[in-house]
Write a structure and sequence with these properties.
Blueprint lengths: L4 E6 L3 H13 L2 E6 L2 H11 L3 E4 L8 H11 L3 E6 L4 H9 L4 E4 L4 H11 L27 E3 L8 E4 L4 E4 L2 E3 L3 H11 L5 E3 H9 L9 H17 L6 E4 L3 E4 L5
Helix pairs in contact: 2-3, 4-8, 6-8
GO biological process, one term: regulation of DNA-templated transcription
GO molecular function, one term: transcription cis-regulatory region binding
Keywords: DNA-binding, Phosphoprotein, Transcription, Transcription regulation, Two-component regulatory system
Length: about 250
């Protein structure tokens, strides 16, 4: 059985594209290079790759729109590799479904480390295991399914890690892989304040530079918005200013 991982490098700069391709080939990937957004979407649709590296500045379609469309086609890991350095660009890239954002110029060792970190996380549809090392000594392990019932004015939240399914008041909520992993980790430590850095370690399986904690904030904001659309009164995920986030089983 062929277990070779596949990757698509979306990059119109031939030198950068070739360098990325060589690195991923050395890492064991079968690589296809796409020079335009339209070509990238065709390749993703045909191959359903494991990984996409995506430049945001392409000659035909803006990379943000390419990322948004990729998310309708595949649950592959997406790393934006871009010369756009503003925080707004980073946040937009993450909001439309990218798993990570790497600013040019970058070292190949850093890209290799980030790819390795992503592949230590389960893809959508794969089983998610309970955390091996809870943040709190007495923190309960995540079980499947987890039934977190609110009190007056608070709908039920049911999380099933084996099916990677979340339901609010019986209605299934569509979450990205990252949003589900963040919620699962918080649910597994009810009432415990989890620092942003600890969420990075638990969900991304790596330590990033301090500014990358914005990744956590963006994905949690998207998660909260989806939960709020199903239950406007929910207050399950609370921000503890200057520290991190806490999952409260009940809305009090």
């Amino acid at each position: 059985m062929d277990n070779t991982r596949t990757a698509v490098v979306v990059e119109d700069d031939h030198d950068v594209g070739d360098a990325l391709s060589r690195l991923l080939v050395q890492a064991g990937f079968d690589v296809t290079v796409a020079r335009t957004g339209a070509q990238a979407l065709t390749v993703v649709r045909e191959q359903d790759p494991d990984l996409v590296t995506l430049d945001l500045t392409l000659p035909d379609i803006d990379g943000v729109e390419v990322c948004r469309q990729i998310r309708t086609l595949s649950d592959c890991y997406v790393i934006v590799v871009s010369g756009r350095t503003s925080e707004v660009d980073r946040l937009v890239g993450l909001e439309v479904g990218a798993d990570d954002y790497l600013v040019k110029p970058f070292s190949m060792r850093e890209l290799q480390a980030r790819v390795a970190a992503l592949f230590r996380r389960p893809r959508s549809g794969e089983l998610i295991a309970a955390p091996e090392a809870p943040l709190a000594q007495d923190g309960p392990a995540l079980q499947a399914p987890v039934d977190v019932s609110g009190q007056t004015g608070c709908d039920d939240l049911v999380l099933n890690p084996r099916a990677r399914e979340v339901r609010v008041d019986g209605e299934e909520i569509e979450l990205t892989r990252t949003e589900f992993d963040l919620l699962a980790h918080l649910v597994s430590h009810p009432g415990v304040v989890v620092a942003r850095e600890d969420l990075l370690r638990a969900v991304w399986s790596t330590d990033f530079v301090p500014e990358s904690t914005h990744v956590v904030d963006v994905h949690l904001a998207n998660l909260r918005r989806k939960l709020r659309s199903a239950s406007a009164d929910n207050q399950w995920i609370r921000t503890i200013r200057g520290v991190g986030f806490r999952f409260d089983p009940c809305c009090l």
